[in-house]
TrEMBL record:
Residues 5-50 form the HTH lacI-type domain. This is LacI family DNA-binding transcriptional regulator. GO terms for molecular function: DNA binding. It comes from Streptomyces bikiniensis. PANTHER family: HTH-TYPE TRANSCRIPTIONAL REPRESSOR PURR-RELATED, LACI-RELATED TRANSCRIPTIONAL REPRESSOR. It holds the Pfam family Peripla_BP_3.
Length: 336
């Protein structure tokens, strides 16, 4: 079997340095036409075939930020706004345009950015899983990063907060107040909403460690907004034995819970302690200031953009599940 000619052999045959021969095949402009002709003639005579240059990936100039309709996502939502701002800032730093669009899987149509082939990739913020819809997007060859979404068996990346740990920290904190051996109340959201499910699971782990019985009567499900937080808090306070502490699975629900407690003339935290999750700006300005689990909402948007650029450049790469750390921020709403 005849061995293929090497670049070194071509250089020697042409009477030039190997670096000069390499520059010829790399189309460097500083090589004289005489040397260029000599190297190419040597290559032809030896049957040398230069390596084909790997095509450079197309530059990323446009990406879309997609949120699902009907999931309390809008730029007015304090959590959503911070995530979107992080993504916008990361794109601006990289010279990338960011488009925003609301998608409704129930209506069947894919996002317009996908249908029109307008963008290099998608950032998808969705609390609830719709694997079939996501699979249709991926089948169109659009690189995707999912925010706040449970891992799914598709070639996409995930960026989310460690919600289970946050729920656990919340449970440990409220149980440490020792106001009552009973289970604290919980105001959460539908089971199909990934962060709500994970936060409740972490909370239950804290109950199990403390040997406190789980009582489903103390778990009420709202819609992650102030109005449902107020409604659920009133329902908890109307129980024959109301809780002495309440964990709200997001801060907006907790703001509603504080409003309900104030309307009844209850002291927070003297009569009932209240805490939230996310540490939105209003949490520190609540009356009283709200104990909460802090999440880095800005960073989740930034990290999603970074992951998306990696995936655009290497679509076949292994999927990644990145979870950002959370921490307890104690304020007056639980401090006796």
């Amino acid at each position: 079997m005849t061995r293929k000619a090497t670049l070194r052999q071509v250089a020697e045959h042409a009477g030039v340095a190997i670096g000069t021969a390499s520059a010829v095949f790399a189309d460097k402009q500083w090589v004289s036409s005489r040397v260029r002709d000599a190297v190419r003639q040597a290559a032809d005579e030896l049957g040398y075939e230069p390596r084909q240059k790997r095509p450079e990936p197309a530059p990323v100039t446009d990406v879309a930020f997609i949120s699902w309709a009907g999931e309390a996502f809008s730029p007015a939502n304090p959590y959503f706004a911070a995530v979107l701002h992080g993504a916008q800032q990361a794109c601006a730093d990289l010279g990338i345009s960011l488009h925003y669009e609301v998608a409704d899987p129930a209506r069947g149509g894919l996002p317009q950015a996908v249908e029109r082939g307008q963008v290099s990739g998608l950032l998808l913020l969705s609390y609830a899983s719709d694997s079939e819809y996501l699979e249709r997007i991926v089948e169109r060859g659009v690189p995707c990063v999912l925010l706040e979404h449970e891992p799914i068996a598709l070639p996409v990346d995930h960026v989310r907060h460690d919600d289970e740990l946050g729920g656990y920290l919340a449970g440990k904190h409220l149980l440490s107040l020792a106001k009552s051996p009973r289970m604290p109340g919980v105001i959460t959201a539908d089971e199909n909403i990934t962060p709500a499910r994970a936060r409740l699971a972490g909370f239950r782990r804290a109950l199990d460690e403390a040997n406190v019985a789980f009582d489903p009567r103390y778990v009420l499900r709202g819609t992650f907004d102030v109005a449902s937080g107020l409604r659920c808090m009133n329902a908890l306070l109307d129980l024959d034995v109301p809780p002495r502490a309440v964990f709200c699975a997001n801060d907006e629900s907790a703001l509603g819970a504080l409003e309900a407690a104030r309307a009844r003339g209850l002291d927070v935290p003297g009569d009932v302690a209240v805490m939230g999750f996310d540490d939105v700006p209003l949490a520190a300005r609540a009356e009283p200031p709200l104990t909460t689990i802090a999440t880095d909402k800005h960073l989740i948007g930034v990290q999603a953009v970074r992951h998306l650029l990696d995936r655009v450049g290497n679509p076949a790469m292994t999927s990644r599940d990145t979870r950002l750390a959370v921490r307890l921020v104690q304020r007056a709403s639980t401090r006796g």
